Every structure is written in C-alpha cells, then in structure tokens.
Amino acid sequence: MYPVLFEIRGFEVTSFGAMLAVAALVGIWIFRRELRRSSLPESAVDAALAGVLGGIVGAKLLWVVEHLGSDEWTSLLFSRGGLSWFGGFAGGVLAGVLVMRRQRLPFMATIAAATPALAIGHAIGRIGCLLVGDDYGTPSNLPWAIAFPEGLPPTDVPVHPTMVYESLALLPIAFVLFGMRRRQVVDRSVVGAYLVMTALVRFLIQWLRVYEPFAGPLGFAHIAAMIVIAAGLYLLLTPPDARAQLGAVRRRR
Questions:
Q1: Cβ neighbours around 41 below 10 Å, total
Q2: Is 104 left (phi over 0), alpha (psi -120 to 50) or beta?
Q3: Which has the closest alpha carbon to 108: 230, 234, 22, 221?
Q4: Eight-state DSSP code of residue 79
Q5: Cβ within 8 Å of residue 14, ≥6 positions away
Q6: 153-157 contacts: CB < 8 A, separation 24 or more?
Q7: pLDDT of 80 strictly over 60
Q8: What pTM, to 2 d.p., does this model score?
Q9: Cis ω on the peptide bond leading into residue 143 (within 30° of 0)?
Q10: d(CA 225, CA 166)
Q11: For residue 90, what are the CA distances in angstroms to 37, 41, 94, 176?
Q12: pLDDT-based confidence at residue 68 (cuts at 50, 70, 90)
C-alpha cells in the first residue's frame, strides 16, 4: 500500500488522488480520439471536464450517504478515499449533460464517444483504490488475497482485492466498446452495452464486498446496478430513432 506519495508543507498528495488525475488525463485523451472518429466538435471536451468534476463530487457524496453512521459525516467527506461508482456516474452525466445542452451537442453520440474513455478511466481509478486500501472485499484465503493495515477501514485479515477484480473486468469491456465504435454500431447500442456490462460487473463484485443489506439480501449497489442494467437493456432492445440513425451515418461519412 502507498496511501500517501509525498507531502508539501503538510498537504498530503495521495496515490488515490494521483490515480484519479491519471484516469482523467487518459480518459480525455481517448475521448478526443473518439470525437474525431465520430466527426464531433472538439469542444465536447468541455463536457468531459465538467463530467470529471461532477463525477468526483457525486461519487463522494453518495459514498458518504451510504456510510453514514459508520463515522462522522465530516470525517467521511474528507477521507482520502471513498467513492461510489453510481454516484460518480450520476454526477458526471448530469454535469456533462448540462454542458452538452449549452453547446447543443448530440447527446447520444457524445456519450457513445465517451464510453471507452469511461471504462478505461474507471479501471485506472480502481488502481487508486487499491493503493489506499479502499473498497476491498470480504476475508479470503485465496493466494492473491491482500491485507490493508492502513486501509479504509484498516484490516490485518487478507481480503478479496475487489478493486483489482473490477479494474481487470473493465479492460475487456473497453476493448468491446472500441470494437463496436470501429464497426460503427449505432450510438444508443454502444451506450446500452456500456451500461449493461459495467453495471453487471459491479453487481457481481458487490457480492464479494462488505455491505449493509438494503432490500432482502441485496445491498444499495445491487439495486442501483439493476436499474442501470435495465436502462442499458432498454437502449439495446428498443429500435433507434430513424433521425438519430441518419445523423450518425452523416457524421461518419
């Protein structure tokens, strides 16, 4: 574990924060390439920047809400780790949509262009969780189980490194999304596939994590994942609007 990389006059630069910065930079670089592939204006990067900021705020706030009662809310808010993917997704989309509406960007096409970047950025961010010992799983006797004596919270018992599982699962998802984009699959199907695959990974990994039951055996993350999967299936299974298809074809010519 390397929770703190260095200090500058008492200010800690954490590995978690550093990996978030790397994830944002790599994600924006990939997003620029995908914008060019779809002949979308590069000004859409402004929506990505807004999405990064909104995502961090949303991820932190939802994580604090989920863990209220385990500590003072101020301690949770200013802890060095602790982000919820669902909060980050909701906050990022909301902030990005506001900028897209202001710039009059095509919503589905812009989101589709962002999906590979979102998957890879998410994978990099989870490495930050590993470095600070956040979002780990239940005790395990597997050879790759890890103890996090300085984690959030600390544990000397080897546990499932669920952040690693999630990071590794996101890389093939990004590969599939790149392939769909190269084959010029309709935008709503790309977005639907992203939602289904990432939420399914989160749903499955949640069973290996410590969580408070929310509805029967299901935790809050299970319920949120099911909602996201349903939204993704809706996009995949309903026919695209004819005008949206025509617009996508025109952009790719």
A1: 13
A2: left
A3: 234
A4: S
A5: 3, 4, 5, 80, 81, 132
A6: none
A7: no
A8: 0.83
A9: no
A10: 14
A11: 26, 24, 6, 23
A12: low
Q: Which domain holds residue 59?
A: 4-252
pLDDT of residue 238 exceeding 80: yes
- Joined together, the tokens standing for residue 15 give 């590995």
Separation in Å, CA 35 to CA 158, 181, 187, 238: 43, 11, 13, 25
Tokens (6 digits) for 216: 């029967």
Number of domains observed in the structure of the chain: 1
Task: Give CB contacts under 8 A, 24+ apart, made by 181-186.
Answer: 181/34, 181/37, 181/38, 181/112, 181/113, 181/115, 181/116, 184/248, 184/252, 186/240, 186/244, 186/245, 186/248
Chain position carrying tokens 């101020």: 74
Of the candidate ranges 28-37, 72-81, 141-150, the one whose mean pLDDT is the lowest:
72-81
* pLDDT tens string 95-110: 888 988 888 989 899 9
* Strand extents, DSSP E, the chain: 4-8, 11-14, 146-148, 155-159, 213-215, 218-219
